[in-house]
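Escalated from tier 1: 6-O-phosphono-alpha-D-glucopyranose holo job.
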Amino acid sequence: MCGIVGYVGEQECAEILVDGLKRLEYRGYDSAGIAVFQNGKITVEKSKGKLADLEKKMENGKKPHGNCGIGHTRWATHGEPSDINSHPHGNKRVTIVHNGIIENYKQIKDFLISQGYGFESETDTETVAKMLDYYYDGNPIETISKMIDKVNGSYALGILFRDFPDTIFAIRKESPLIVGLGKNENFIASDMTPILKYTKDYYLLEQGEIAVITAKEVKIYNTEEELIQKEVLTADWDADAAEKGGYEHFMLKEINEQPTAIKTTIAPRIQDGMPYLEESGLTMEMLKNYRRIFVVACGTAMHAGLVGKYIIEKLARVEVTVDIASEFRYRDPLIEKEDLVILVSQSGETADTAAALALAKERGAATLAIVNVKGSRIAREADVVIYTHAGPEISVASTKAYSVQLSVMYLIAFELAYAKGVISKERCMELTKSLMEIPDKLNEALALKERCQFIASRLVNAESLLYIGRGLDYALSMEGSLKLKEISYIHSESYAAGELKHGTISLVTDEMPVIAVATQSNLLEKTISNVKEVKARGAKVVVICTNDVEIGKDVANHLIQLPKMEDMLMPLLAAIPMQYIAYYTAVLKGCDVDQPRNLAKSVTVE
Ligand code: G6P
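Tier 2 regenerated the structure:
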């Protein structure tokens, strides 16, 4: 959702701000703007639409000149996307950009109106800007502290005070914000992607800390307004990781990065052929004593949890409940102290997942976060964190983050099963070895690209599609269906193959293609029977199975055959054709693959 960048240094900042915002486009947005100190005054340019619209607006000499400024991409929450509602907001004295939601903005607005303030936008952000102006007494730190006391909600703010030229003030509560440390130039940003090409060093702002940033120095104050020293962190993502690297889209690049992402994620967690999660603080002793496991997440991350449920229950015989975070947090779940709650999140910032984590902690359960972005909110708040090492995932549709989340689920399942004494050390080593072979096998699956591209050409005109599968294949097909609908806008549904007969089969005609996932050998015959049922009703069927089975033309119109591995590991391989099919269908339909309409990469509001 909303993205923030800020620059102060020796260079012209408007280009740097717009370039930085382009790198945050993936978070999802519908308008953009910048504010720059120009000859001692704050000059604002903003526009509804894409960054190209903002750039157009700044053509013909309208681009503000200066070396210090803040920029923003807005994902509308309060008020429709419009020029007026776009950030920055404020007046001549204080100008801000904001990511998050101000819950009590209505009360603040009413109060400020009673004090004579006028408002031009419908945003919650403008109330914060005007409130800062109201409290402003010449001392920005004091002013910001007074504002913090009055405002409820989540926020990351970049602030310019006219009286403090070439200085950026920044603060965060819940919403992400980092301060990038360059040479004679410094930055603020929602994440590392806009600043990686300038520096890898950064400060992670903690709740309530106030940063005062000039070209030469960064000062951080704690909530007591005392100057503090903070540890400088160094990003381990290289600058190329946030570039397309010759691929047409980030999504295609990220699909192809999966072998490396998995290797990098599992290698440090395997020792002497056995899973080794202790470096993250998760010991065998802890693992074996949990009574039940809850996996809580949103979107694709929740789908990774569904696969996790199947494998943990099957291997370790421990009960696992998977919840959508927005449901979990309000359903008064039966979690207890002996339970483990696993939060899965690529960004580590998803508001509902973070709220679920807070609830789990409140109930005294142990919490484990599987997160990709270092230092993110969920990673910092959970008792234990296992980082996935996928590198930055820029495409809104998640691919490599899903695979690395799955690979961590496998390691947990293997270790837990061994810790519980349900599987022998030999079996645990055998499974771990198979997992280590996955990156090579994935390359074979990635070679199916043209086949998937051809199949996409057969699906592109469909109005609706059905994904079916049983067991793990069903869990995986949910992700396949989500991938297709989010980027190609073709409606699709995923269904347990055996349940079709109880209603959904009535939808099947020759106009509804069916993608059947049939990689589980013990369920193959059953799934094929269901395939025959839909085929008999006219559906064109794509079957995704392993390369050791024979399936005739009378059963499948199109076949995708994957290298055969342990049944349990097949979701990692079968995800690839699903991702490719969604990708090529979206490309053929001319959709904006990396930034699908209405979606945001990082959903920081409820
Ligand atoms: C958004 C993204 C999805 C993602 C979900 C959860 O909906 O578009 O790709 O799966 O959020 O995000 P998280 O960062 O918590 O994994």
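The chain has 18 helices and 27 strands.
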